[in-house]
Amino acid sequence: xxxxxxxxxxxxxxxxxxxCGKKEDGAKTAAPKTEAPVPPPKTEKPPEPEAPPIxxxxxxxxxxxxIMKGFLAYPxxxxxxxxxxxxxxxxxxNDYTRARAKQLAEMGYTALAVDMYGNGKTAAHxxxxxxxxxxxxxxxxxxxxxxxxxxxxxxxxEHADPERVAAIGYCFGGAVVLHMAxxxxxxxxxxSFHGNLSTQQPMKNGAFKGKILVFHGAAxxxxxxxxxxxxxxxxxxxxxxxxxxxxxxxxxxxxNPGATDLGKKFELPLEYxxxxxxxxxxxxxxxxxQVTAK
Length: 294
What we know:
Layout: H1 3-20, E1 54-63, E2 66-75, E3 81-87, H2 95-106, E4 110-113, H3 126-137, H4 140-155, E5 160-170, H5 172-182, E6 189-193, E7 211-217, H6 225-238, E8 241-247, H7 259-266, H8 274-292
Parallel strand pairs: 3-4, 3-5, 5-6, 6-7, 7-8
Antiparallel strand pairs: 1-2, 2-4
């Protein structure tokens, strides 16, 4: 029963009881006046907090003779913030990579969506994606230089703290950031989301001083269990500070909301998984905050 209904019931009962009562001299008892019950105050849902303002820039940088087209996002203030390199999937530097950079900026980081293919080119078909990816992977020294050029461009920003730098990657990008960790790159943290884990250059003991996070779809046929086991052994042998998290039922591309449609279109085992996406981003965010805290 609501407060209002309860008050009305009490008032009605009081009126009825007063109407039946008599004074000792036989005079009728007048019914007392009742006031209308006051309804409870209305409560309004508080407005959703607005995302903090951010700034964005289209940026160019160079590696060898190739012009790279990046995208920089940062909190809209005058401070220097911890910095994050965001390396794209095999589709190339697209809107998804930029969205992650903006998401990081809203969290208080300066982020550069990296271009590993050059000239900002992207693939609309898996055949082109495979071609672009292999052009980079067939020239590992060149890939390392492209990553280093992106890092140099990021820390040159007036919004970036050059002493606190991390890197994350998706799919192809996950393989890239793990490779850079294996080379002992100057990074506080690397995180791979549904990335390839295999390598021809296993990490040497003590090579990487930062933290390694791997978020893996347990139902991803592109990264079979044998590859997972080999990666874990490699990290253990190298004494690496790493965390491996597998998500039951998650397939390749589980962080990308567009993965399901792409999977259906090209008959590939790609599928977005909202739970795995949310959980992996939360774990990454907490680790990033910890390693970049002053």
